[in-house]
Specification:
single chain, about 325 residues, alpha+beta, Phosphorylase Kinase, domain 1, 5-stranded antiparallel sheet, about 40% helix, globular, transferase activity, Aminoglycoside_PTrfase, Kinase-like_dom_sf
């Protein structure tokens, strides 16, 4: 911090922040300024440091845009400084996660919750509107062939679970049908942009005073791809029905009063049409692809549960959510 010219003095109000299971976050105050430190877990995984470097780069690139996100203060890519861990400092965001808690006035006002939903779509549109090359992310991903490799990439991921002892293989009705129709109906025209990659309510922080999105968080899956997949991911996990996916939205989903999927698409389109010219005609395809990807990701925990590497009840729950996601995928493709 001294090397970066940041204020000195004692470290005050030091405490861990909850949220996420992959990395460690600690907030503190020093020299009259609040900070959040983010680093990998105590036992670093193979790609943790590379992921943290990418996150820091994205947050730095978003500075100066209107995308609601923490702002990067300083990053340390040198692994020798903190016992092998890359880390960075970012601004503290005052807000709450609506999948964990729902304070007033949000809990008592359906109109506030409705606007919270619309603002989730608008925040995704703001991210999709950023010119990734203009902010220095032209070499951040591999947009060429991005949509073409999605289905095969995730089918390979599903196949890899077969290496886990005891896993009998995927029992997912509609798997082959969804994969086939995704390949057959893949959009042929799209515009690359910044893709958060895990865009749902649990990765949004809301303002404590109203329905605004205070920050999009957890950028570890960010890349350059098709930003419409973020909207598809939001729709795939949206708690607009009494089904297993509603569990992903927590208190906000239980409280109700949220906009419909069509209203979310309209809110996104207000920005997309005016700024980026993105075509939402293929939106059901993106919703189906998001269901396909997320379902396969969650099935991985079910496979690990068969191998004794995850709790059996957790594996059962996520498998049921996977089945619901594939039902949703078929509904998207039928629409």
């Amino acid at each position: 911090m001294r090397g970066q010219g940041l204020p000195g003095g004692p470290f005050e109000d030091v405490r861990p922040l909850a949220g996420g299971t992959q990395n460690t976050m600690v907030r503190f105050r020093r020299g009259g300024r609040d900070y959040v430190l983010r680093r990998g877990p105590s036992r670093l995984r193979a790609r943790t440091n590379d992921v943290l470097r990418r996150e820091a780069r994205v947050l730095a690139a978003l500075d100066g845009t209107d995308v609601p996100a923490p702002r990067l203060i300083a990053a340390c890519p040198d692994e020798s400084v903190m016992g092998g861990a890359v880390f960075y400092l970012m601004t503290l965001v005052e807000g709450f996660n609506a999948s964990v808690t729902l304070p007033r006035p949000h809990a008592g006002d359906a109109s506030v919750r409705h606007e919270m939903g619309l603002n989730a779509a608008r925040a995704a549109a703001a991210l999709g509107a950023v010119d990734h090359e203009a902010v220095g992310l032209g070499d951040f991903g591999r947009p060429a062939g991005f949509l073409e490799r999605q289905v095969s990439r995730w089918l390979s991921e599903l196949d890899s679970y077969g290496a886990l002892d005891g896993y009998p293989g995927p029992d997912i009705p509609g798997l082959d049908d969804v994969a086939r129709r995704l390949e057959e109906r893949r959009p042929t025209r799209w515009r690359p942009g910044i893709l958060h990659g895990d865009y749902h309510l649990a990765n949004l922080m809301y303002s404590p005073d109203g329905p605004g999105v205070a920050a999009i968080v957890d950028w570890e899956m960010c890349t350059i791809g098709d930003p419409l997949l973020d909207l598809g991911w939001l729709l795939a996990t949206w708690p607009d029905r009494a089904d297993e996916c509603a569990a992903l939205a927590g208190p906000l989903g239980e409280a109700g009063g949220l906009p419909t999927a069509d209203e979310l698409a309209d809110a996104y389109a207000e920005r997309a049409d005016a700024v980026t010219g993105r075509d939402l005609d293929s939106l059901p395809w993106y919703g189906a692809l998001a269901c396909f990807k997320l379902g396969i990701l969650l099935e991985g925990t079910n496979a690990r549960a068969f191998a004794g590497k995850a709790p059996r009840d957790t594996g059962d729950l996520l498998h049921w959510i996977t089945l619901d996601l594939f039902r949703r995928a078929q509904t998207f493709l039928d629409s």
